[in-house]
Amino acid sequence: MGQAKDDLELIENLEQIFSTLRHEWGNSINSLKITLDVLQKNYDYFDDIKRKNYLSRVSELVTRQQRMIEAMKSYSNLIVEDQENIKFPIFWEHFVNIAALKLKNDNIRLIHYLEVEPCLIKANGVAINQIMINILDNAIEAVKEKKDAKIEVKAVKDNGYVLILLKDNGSGINNKDAQKIFIPLFTTKQGKMGMGLPITRRLLFNMGGRIEIESRRGSGTEARVWLKTVSDQ
Question: Fewer C-beta within 10 Å: the chain N or C terminus?
Answer without folding.
Answer: N
